[in-house]
Design a protein that fits this description.
Helix content is 77%, strand content 0%. The protein is built from 20 helices and no strands. Helix 4 crosses helix 12 and helix 13 (316-365) runs antiparallel to helix 14.
């Protein structure tokens, strides 16, 4: 065990200074963006003016959450090689987005993924079902981010948890309410640059202690903790559970509402594909860094210290920052971690507000007959409502282990959103009933099995043994959603949907009539 006295848990002047610089800078961007965010296209999609490179950075910023940065590094530091399953799972979802989702989404939709699913199907039932799946995904993701932000600020700034949660909620509401997608995009770009730069510097400083030899780092880990840290099986021993987790992470990425709506910010489908290409490279590079950070924390900090500060290992990256660069670098990395949470929360809130205003209010409640002005009023109110809800959820789940919330968000996205999206794009026989039934079946199965899994049934409810043995249900819930979608479409066909399929394909592949 490496004996050193950490300052984590005490107020850090450097992190407070960096934090306020970030807040002031991004609020200045929000003020600038507010002057442009007048209409629905500006608020929801930044006027479709974001370049491929900018959107690639913003996608990376939206996706590289605190769970990715702090969570994966912590898992690797405590469990070794197996922590890589999350990195790989998060990453390999992006080629699926590039080849299956990006182009149809940009050509067929307007602001949300429900636009695509409802393109040739009956609007109301599809949008209601899709909105439920989207809002559940957003809420579960929000809970994990809010609880993480409260714990992080409490630990780094010495503020009470409740004050931290309210501060995060207030700043996030300001970003979205006044600046819309343009402000959110730039917050995500700045956060991505800071996170990638900070993680790169941390890795270089850590590797300098091993002669910049990654193999030397792994050898030191094996020498200290045994060869098992370099072998699989330390985290997910059941192969089926590992496959199920991988499916959730891979296909869930292609069903996350806050990720999918970013494809409406670019001018055309070609730029959408470019942005996925850039995002994939940036995210892949980042996950390589987190893997090295995890092993470096294992060796240079020590598992005992990592586990003592946080049982889940979530402070491993911050502890490594302190070991390699002192309290100043620790303060910078802590502020970057907080910026990470703010950017993701802003993206989630905007996605939820868009679902409520565009899908439910404009297309369900008003049957597509609302004015843009009315829709924007609802969007702004929804933003405030979701911000308040996020604060209340963060307070309600204080002290709870909410790691399963991110897994559940991905499981719902993979089981409810992704199958309906793919069926509506690729299968001519998809009917309104089938698509709606697919979304409902995927949502209910994913949530139900998670509740019966070891993560909730044992860890949260305190029962002796789980009813459902796997920690992630996607291997069952996603095929179930596809099957129910197929069966529902066969039993209750939709002649109108079939007749519009050719027109949908022309717009899908040629972009004729795209927004």
């Amino acid at each position: 065990m490496n004996a050193f006295t950490t300052t984590i848990g005490q107020p850090n002047a450097t992190s407070i200074i960096f934090f306020f610089f970030f807040i002031l800078g991004t609020l200045a961007i929000t003020y600038y963006a507010a002057k442009k965010s007048r209409g629905a296209s500006q608020f929801y999609a930044a006027g479709r003016s974001v370049t491929g490179w900018q959107n690639g950075l913003a996608l990376a910023g939206d996706y590289m959450s605190a769970a990715s940065f702090l969570g994966i590094a912590g898992l690797v530091s405590l469990r070794g090689y197996d922590g890589l399953i999350y990195s790989i799972g998060f990453l390999v979802g992006w080629p699926i987005i590039m080849f299956l989702v990006a182009e149809p989404l940009r050509n067929l939709g307007k602001y949300t993924f429900a636009d695509v699913v409802a393109y040739r199907l009956s609007q109301k039932p599809i949008r209601i079902a899709a909105s439920v799946g989207s809002l559940l995904t957003v809420c579960f993701y929000l809970i994990a981010q809010m609880v993480g932000s409260g714990s992080l600020i409490k630990m780094m700034f010495g503020l009470p948890y409740e004050t931290a949660i309210i501060a995060v909620g207030a700043v996030m509401i300001a970003y979205v309410l006044f600046g819309g997608m343009l402000a959110t995009t730039w917050v995500q770009i700045i956060k991505a640059v800071l996170l990638l730069a900070g993680a790169t510097v941390m890795v270089l400083m850590a590797l300098s202690k091993f002669g910049f030899n990654v193999v030397g780092l792994f050898s030191a880990a094996a020498a200290t903790y045994g060869e098992k840290v370099l072998n699989p099986g330390g985290l997910v021993a059941n192969p089926l559970d590992a496959v199920s987790l991988g499916i959730a992470l891979m296909f869930g990425t292609a069903g996350l509402p806050h990720i999918l709506m970013r494809f409406y910010t670019v001018p055309d489908a070609k730029t959408a594909r470019k942005s996925v290409f850039y995002a994939t490279g940036l995210i892949g590079y980042f996950y390589v860094l987190t893997f090295i950070i995890g092993f470096a924390a294992m060796v240079l900090v020590g598992r005992d210290v990592v586990a003592k500060v946080d049982a889940g290992g979530n402070m491993a990256a911050l502890l490594l920052a302190e070991v390699t660069g002192g309290t100043v670098f620790l303060g910078f990395i802590a502020a970057v971690a907080f910026a990470t949470i703010l950017a993701v929360v802003a993206g989630l809130t905007l996605a939820g507000a868009t679902t409520l205003s565009h899908d439910l209010y404009a297309n369900v409640w008003r049957s597509g007959n609302s004015s843009e002005e009315d829709e924007m009023k609802v969007a702004k109110r929804a933003t405030v409502g979701l911000g308040v809800a996020a604060i209340l959820l963060g307070l309600a789940f204080k002290g709870q282990n909410v790691a399963f919330m991110v897994g559940l968000a991905f499981a719902i996205a993979a089981s409810a959103n992704f199958p309906a999206l793919i069926l509506s794009i690729l299968w001519k026989g998809t009917s309104t009933f089938g698509a709606a039934a697919s979304i409902v079946a995927g949502t209910v199965t994913a949530v139900g099995l998670i509740l019966l899994s070891p993560t909730v049934w044992v860890d949260v409810f305190g029962n002796a043994a789980p009813i459902f043995p796997w920690t992630n249900p996607a291997l069952i819930s996603m095929p179930a959603a596809f099957f129910v979608g197929w069966l529902g479409s066969v039993l209750v066909p939709d002649a109108k949907a079939r007749s519009l399929y050719e027109a949908q394909q022309i717009r899908n592949y040629l972009g004729v009539g795209a927004e």
